[in-house]
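**Backbone geometry record:**
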Amino acid sequence: MRFLIGDSDKRRPRRRRAWPKWIRPATLGLTASLALGAGGYGVYQVWKAGTVGSAVERIGHGMLAMTADLGLSVQEVLVTGRTETAAPDMLAAIDVQRGTPILAVDPEAVRQRLKKLAWVRDARVERRLPGVISIAIEERVPMALWQRGGKLVLVDREGAVVLRSGLERFRHLVTLVGDDAPKGAPELLALLATEPQLERRVTAAIRVGERRWNLQMDNGIDVRLPETDIAAAWTQLAQLERDQKVLGRDVVTIDLRLPDRFVIRVSPDQVRKGKGTPKQT
């Protein structure tokens, strides 16, 4: 997208005189020479008066103002990559006004301010003379909801907290439970994606003892994954669902922790009715 700094006042930007192509490099060279000459003489004079610090600062500001008068001032801020970050928050972080000497804008300082915004993972900030600040935003990609302390937060693949409120539109994401759950979640979620139809039925992933995962399906069935060779267990469950539609039965738990068998536990009501017993296969 494109931000025009200062466009809120509804005034059209001033048209600058079209200079010949050769004049800008020459002008900049002259400006630099004047800065060195005036700066050196000025520093020598104020050194004798004992006011070097404030004088040098005034000289610097004066030279920057001169470059702005020559046309090197911010006229546009071009931003790409912004989807979730609120425009007012971004403009506040950029903190640049139209007419500011473009050489006074510190790209790294702007980048660091942008990175403090919740959605911004990284940013590239460049000055494009004579008057454009170009910013490319890399926003965080939501991975899951993370339950901790009884509250939900939105996290990305690096485990960074993106949002603490306004989570309604992210309810379709898997809920992670466990102190270290976000750390191991990218690998787990990549594995679940290998069986898309089964993946869509997973509503929560609970980290157990920082060693393995339990999955909760959309109908409340608890699937217990092993510590190792999770891929084989997940493939086995997918095949079981295709062959026997096990997730559509009155099942409480599917235990896949044993390498050579799985254990299905049906509900107590079904056992009492004689319609099913715990099954080991």
Summary: Residues 157 and 185 are 8 Å apart (CA to CA).
